[in-house]
Amino acid sequence: MAKTIPMIITNDSILVKKKEGDEFVTFKMPGIDVDCNIPFYHQFAKKISECQYNFKQFIKKEYGKKYSKSVLAIITPDDTSPLEYIFINEFFLNSGACKAVCQMTMGQAISKNHSRYISVSKSSRNIILQYINNNEVCAKKYYDFNNYDIKSIFEDAKRLHIDIEYEGVPVFVNNLNMNMEEFSEMGQIVTPKEFLDKIAVIDVEKV
After folding, report:
1. How far is CA 67 from CA 57, 74, 153, 191, in A?
2. Does the first or last residue of the chain, that is N or C, have fewer Cβ atoms within 10 Å of its Cβ?
3. CA atoms of 43 and 31, how far apart (whole Å)
4. What does each C-alpha distance from 149 to 23, 153, 154, 167 come to in angstroms?
5. Do residues 117 and 135 lie in contact, with contact meaning Cβ atoms separated by under 8 Å?
6. Does residue 105 sit in helix, strand or coil?
7. Sign of the CA dihedral 131, 137, 139, 141?
């Protein structure tokens, strides 16, 4: 079975699980300027060969000679668009750093103990509500990063999908990027350590 390398695309960097242990190391591409409300990895397209080479060397240094036989299990922000999904897939698959790529959103990975739940997170451009049922995103709603009302989001979470209008489900608040304190009353805060611990042991079959 191919070795799985868990990695997370955060709001400003890429976290990759170390070969030994459950810790993550950070990959940042030199010379990348971060624009407000635009995911940082969009800049990779401007010098794609250089970025792919640097990432490949990063993985090679951490995982050794057999790095190219691995599967990258990529956890993406909850507002990743279909076009961005394709770019992420093609970028890493064609980097030479792996033999295959699979993706899932942060909301899908936030709980392993519940089959049905709501996740709420904040990306570099949106607040995102998701209703997850058996690892599938069944409903999703976005709120502008610069203009939102927490009370409205709280009420929307109660009726995000018809399945939960009359039956409550747990709400998990993803605080990986350390920017969700104001949402603490909505549900259970998932700390960066708790989230990384979940991703460190990931089931590729579900990605």
Report:
1. 10, 15, 42, 30
2. N
3. 10
4. 35, 6, 9, 24
5. no
6. strand
7. positive
Q: What digits encode the pLDDT tens for the residues 104-126?
A: 999 999 998 999 999 999 998 99
pTM: predicted TM-score of the whole model, two decimal places: 0.90
The answer for 50, left when phi > 0, alpha when psi is -120 to 50, beta otherwise, is alpha
Q: What is residue 55's DSSP assignment?
A: H
In the chain, what are the helix, strand and coil shares in percent, each to the nearest 5? Answer: 35, 30, 35
* Both structure tokens of 136: 């599938």
How does pLDDT run across 90-105, given as a tens digit for each residue?
999 999 999 999 999 9
Q: How many CB atoms lie within 10 A of CB 120?
A: 26
How big is the chain, counted in residues?
Answer: 207
d(CA 8, CA 75): 5
Query: Which residue, chain included where needed, has tokens 């699979």?
Result: 102
